[in-house]
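# step 3/5: fold
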Amino acid sequence: MDNNRNTISYQPVGIIHSPFKDSIGTPIQPVASPNSRATVEIFDEYAEGLNDIEGFSHLILIFHMHLIKKSPLKVIPFLDTDERGVFATRSPGRPNPIGFSVVQLEKIKGNVLYISGIDIIDGTPLLDIKPFVPAFDVRKANKIGWFEKVDIEKVTIKDDGRFC
């Protein structure tokens, strides 16, 4: 047995409720749907962890992409026609279907976060929340690989179902 491969398990801390009921038609990135609204229900046993979160305008949601059925190591990503290694893409089909999205926090009521700019399917298990802090989370990139050919400012594409 390879000692470097251990089983890892996580328990959700909440659930995401969004207007997107399946992958087809779901925005491929939050920037593609800035006006979409959703709620994040934090389970009662984790609600205390929400203290002070209202002081942040944006949050990083880390979630389990529970509808992913396949995880090829090469994919044809959205915004491209060439096959790429999955680790050079933002494809939801991955060896570990973990997603993250930066969303805007609109308000909080009890253990429910009201957010906008969502690209997550309804019923998605939430694994963690981190505050978005520009000084930590924004970097000037001098290389963005094959994305250099894409007009990212015009991204409004929605999922076409290729990864379900």
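# step 4/5: annotate
The CA atoms of residues 52 and 131 lie 10 Å apart.
# step 5/5: archive (pending)
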